[in-house]
Write a structure and sequence with these properties.
The complex is a heterodimer. Chain A is mostly beta strands. Chain A is 0% helix and 52% strand. Chain A has strands at 4-6, 10-13, 19-25, 31-38, 42-49, 56-57, 65-70, 73-78, 87-94, 103-104, 108-112. By secondary structure, chain B is mainly β. Classes of the chains: A mainly beta, B mainly beta.
């Protein structure tokens, strides 16, 4: 079974703090993605990565950066957290071809106070 | 811009059939996917249509018409456990998905 894990299920941080969200997949997938999910807005893509050290901006990259030093790990970084970054963050991974089914992690609910 | 439109909520009774429509306006379109998400859970893959026509997977079927930029998810023999949010998503280059806002399905006894 594909497994995508995220470092925390719930996280509370203060405005201005640097926040790291970690995601690990065990299926040797090339593609990895970070989304945020807010009520009524669906899932919005923040950043994605095709391969190690590769990254591409998604639809809402402002205020975020990412790091992919190893194939199985994709990190989302909030350099200076703000209250409008309070959200559910979902990581996903996919292989190449065949509809590129994305497998999601359980999500991290981040609250910025 | 790129967008997908789907109804925000649908209600149906156990045992019934429900259809969730999705219209899309995206560039570099490869196909249409559907994901299910239960409250508090992660989205899980349901189906994918790369070509026009109907794809059937058990009680769930998905349809795509590229010429109409339209697709739907059909759920048959509804069960209470089918109460969830359903997202259509267009697949673009590099495995990138653009998601609709989601349809909340409520199944009543």
């Amino acid at each position: 079974d594909v497994k995508v894990t995220q470092s925390s299920r719930y996280l509370v941080k203060r405005t201005g703090e640097k926040v790291f969200l970690e995601c690990v997949q065990d299926m040797d997938h090339e593609n990895m993605f970070w989304y945020r999910q807010d009520p009524g807005l669906g899932l919005r893509l923040i950043y994605f990565s095709y391969d190690v050290k590769m990254k591409e901006k998604g639809d809402i990259p402002e205020g975020y950066s990412v790091s992919r030093e190893k194939k199985e790990r994709f990190s989302l970084i909030l350099e200076s957290a703000s209250t409008n970054q309070t959200s559910m963050y979902l990581c996903a991974s996919s292989g190449r071809g065949g509809g590129d089914t994305q497998y999601f992690g359980p999500g991290t609910r981040l609250t910025v106070l | 811009g790129q967008s997908l439109e789907q109804p925000s909520e649908v209600t149906a009774v156990e045992g019934a059939i429900v259809q969730i429509n999705c219209t899309y306006q995206t560039s570099g379109f490869y196909g249409l996917s559907w994901y299910q998400q239960h409250d508090g859970g992660a989205p899980t893959f349901l189906s994918y249509n790369a070509l026009d026509g109907l794809e059937e997977t058990g009680r769930f079927s998905s349809f795509l018409s590229r010429s109409d930029s339209y697709g739907y998810l059909l759920l048959q023999e509804l069960q209470m456990k089918d109460s969830a949010s359903y997202f259509c998503a267009s697949l673009g280059q590099g495995g990138k998905l653009i998601f609709g806002q989601g349809t909340e399905l409520s199944v009543k006894p």
